[in-house]
Amino acid sequence: MADDTIVRAHIRRALAAQATEQDVLRRLTKAFRLLQAERCAPGGARDEDLTAAEYYFFARQAVASNAVSLKQMLLMVAENDTLQHASQRIGPGGTPLASCDDAPSQDSIGWGVAGAMLGETDRQIYLPGSTPPPFKPAFMGARL
Q1: pTM higher than 0.70 for the full model?
Q2: Where are the domains of the chain?
């Protein structure tokens, strides 16, 4: 079970590490990549708190940057195997990340939903007037 206090600490730490990035959407993506790299390092895939924080940023940055719509992300989060597949597929160079093969927990899925919801708010603030894309089946192989 993920500890929400620790998950929030990972989220704050990842954002703080990107404090010099002026573009908020890039900052979110860099925070996601940082946590993704940590989780895919030896032993990281077993850290449920780190996994939850990574899923939060995966969903938040994908929705905020308009890579996918909120609806599609919520569907992806609900289908946890799909979310796991997507997070593996958007590793460096689009190469599957073998150390990230654990299925997400219910807590991680909840953090993914929270990230998607905040990502929609971010999209409306930082990409005003943008229209979320239609459902993108090809997103599963995307390199964000």
Answers
A1: yes
A2: 4-141
